Hints:
Elements: H1 5-16, E1 26-28, H2 32-41, E2 51-53, H3 56-64, E3 69-70, E4 78-83, E5 87-88, E6 94-95, H4 102-110, E7 112-120, E8 133-137, H5 142-151, E9 155-158, E10 168-173, H6 180-188, E11 193-196, E12 198-199, E13 206-211, E14 214-219
Parallel strand pairs: 1-2, 1-4, 2-3, 4-7, 7-13
Antiparallel strand pairs: 5-6, 6-12, 8-10, 8-11, 9-10, 13-14
Helix pairs in contact: 1-2
Amino acid sequence: MALTQNELKRAVAEAATAYVKEGEILGVGTGSTVDFFIDAIAPMRDKIPACVSSSERSTKKLEGLGFKVLDMNEVEEIGVYVDGADEIDGSFAMIKGGGGALTREKIVASVSKRFVCIADASKKVEVLGRFPLPVEVIPMAARAVRRRLEALGATVTLRDFVTDNGCHILDAAGLQIKDPEALEAEINSWPGVVTVGLFAARGADVLLLGTEEGVKTFEKP
């Protein structure tokens, strides 16, 4: 019998616990796969001095299980950051932000020594862009940034959502992102963009992929 998507997510979440190091601050992302990861590390709470979370949602779940959650400004470095992805390619560049936490996720990733991506097999793609690319913008810039994304060939929608930062998200569909690092740099340079949901300049170091044959581990060369 084929495994359900939730069973695949639970399997990779449990596998990711092997990367958690005793005594180190742990970075925790957000999303449905990360919810399984938080459940999986619950028995380890006494070995983890504190966590840094990328969303209010994850913070509430962590604190509810007895974990200490620190503000990003209280830490110098994070040992391991565990998070999911909406898409990931062969170079370990990702699209993230389907849950709306892309800016905080990018900040946590930037100070983490190791980024472990946990995903089910449906998230692995040859070329990024099948999943609409999220772009977080300050509200007054939404129309201007939308026009720029449309000039790239995207079909753009304004998400009915306000981020934890009080900003808006534009979802750009229909792109084929063959050079994710270059596109990340370009969109991030536009006035009014908080950040784009491309994680290429700082991609994953490890990919744990949930498949019908079990969890497969890929490490960036």
